[in-house]
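Q: Hi! First time doing this. I have a protein sequence and I read that you can turn it into a structure. Is that right? Here it is:
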Amino acid sequence: MALYLLREGELAVDRCKRNGIITVTEPTKPLVFMRNPVGLLMVSKGAGMKNLIKTLIFILILAVLVFAVQREMIPFQWQDTMQSVTFHEKTEEDSVDVLVCGTSSVMVGISPLIIYEKAQITAHVRGNSRQPPQVMYLDVKDALRSQNPEIVVCSASMLLENFDVDREEVRVRRGMDYMPLTVDKLRVAKAITDESSWQTLSSYIMPIGRYHSRWTEIREGLQVGDRNEYDFKHGQYAVYKVKAQEDNSEENMQDRTEVSVTESSMKWYEKTAELCRENGIELLLVTTPDQRWTMGKHEAVAAAAEKLGAGYLDYNVDGITEKCGLDWGRDFYDDHHCNAGGSVKLTNYFTDYLTDNYGLEASDVSEATQKQFEKDIEHFHEVLEKYGFE
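A: Yes, that's right. Below is the predicted 3D structure, encoded as structure tokens:
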């Protein structure tokens, strides 16, 4: 089969050479045209179904190779990447009753394993550092393709942020690049690139263009993590270190300076709330212990939660942090993140809150999922003991 490349718009029918220049003549045989990635036309002279099939197979093989290479080029971050890989590739369908999405505060603070150990309720965390509201919504939308949770839990702090998709592009990428390419992902990517001054939709469809310069890093072994590993913590990113914090929370919570929810973030929380209502799912907003939190912030989020028709659990009010037994000198690694030991205490209270306020009962899942949780819980306690948290 002879293949010719002619510029789009030319009448591609046959070719002859005149002084080394390709020219166009009148049609003599039927031709098949196919657009290729560089914007030219691929022409098969005297083409029939057989030649068309060969061309399609070639393009399919090329696409598979490009996507395979692309997967290796995308930066691998354990805390963001593994929860996505495990959720899509290693979590049984319709086996997650509590879906947790949002920023690092819930990603490190809520342990699906402790929820299951205490109440036999299955959960999974889909979060990343400073998770953009757009990605939070997409996480929920994406999860509903394979799961039917009873409750969706979202961190509340981004309601108060005016998220800049360009300045924090890395946060967007860490949440989206490993998600399957779906219509929903394309819609969110389009919304993000519409806000951006330089990002392109094509870079979310084919991230290899965004990361083509990473060959040197990969050759030098800087690709962190193994995609074949299993995330036994079901999305939680437990941090096994301690950094004592001064407790200024009582003083901070007396600050009632008025704070406003940002419209750009509220829009995506509203989309998430609407999605939950359409699917008969409860929505709960959460604020974990935070030395930077104020009563003004609490009141702003509480008002937003009421407007959204969502519940709101704030660990910074009503002495909840103390009720959990959390110790700022032992259970944190900075002023707003629990360490692994703190997450156990925080999650014990959280589990009781879910069962008391939402009537959640033991999950009806397969024996294989039950055994996997039991095995993962045993391993988690071994790791906690290893690092001195038990």
